[in-house]
Amino acid sequence: MPDTALSPAIDPPSPTTHPAATAPPAALSLEERLTLIDAAMTVRLDEAKIAYEVNTAHIPTEPVDLADIITGPLDTGPAPLPELYPTPVAALLQRAHHRLLTGGWCSGVLVDEDGAHCMLGAIRAEADGDRQLEADAAAVLLEAIRREFGDDVDSVPSFNDAHGTAPIPIRMVDQAAHLADARGL
After folding, report:
1. What is the mean pLDDT of the segment spanning 53-66?
2. Which residues contact 9 (CB under 8 A, 6 or more apart)?
3. Between the chain's N and C termini, which has fewer beta carbons within 10 Å?
4. What is the value of pTM for the model shown?
């Protein structure tokens, strides 16, 4: 007969006595669920990639010359001039705006060596020698500039040369065309 006093009986704890066994499973946060789904999808995509490579390994392929596939935009020339405003000053400013968009903008000179124009150079080029029309267009342009940037602007050339990039000067010529059209000039 074994001595029970020397060897105590070891009973495993019952599942109902363990605190973790009685607590319901904790709900996963959205971030945790998304992480698990991402991991599962990554595994599935990796398996699909391997299956595709295995299934298509026997298919002969010819190298592709990217020059046959990738092409640049066609050089179709300058964009067509939109319908002109009915008034002379507004139409002149609209043509000057189009010239700046298609021929380029510059600062420091009326026309640079590449054929780009400053704001006043574009007006002068589109005025075709009509000095009065050119002066009227420059006056409307200066007014449009002062409306947006204040009365501190001395002249159209100084405003043009104060900018290092084209977007603001080109936008101001377009706004001047709208202003001249609204005034019937």
Report:
1. 81
2. none
3. N
4. 0.56
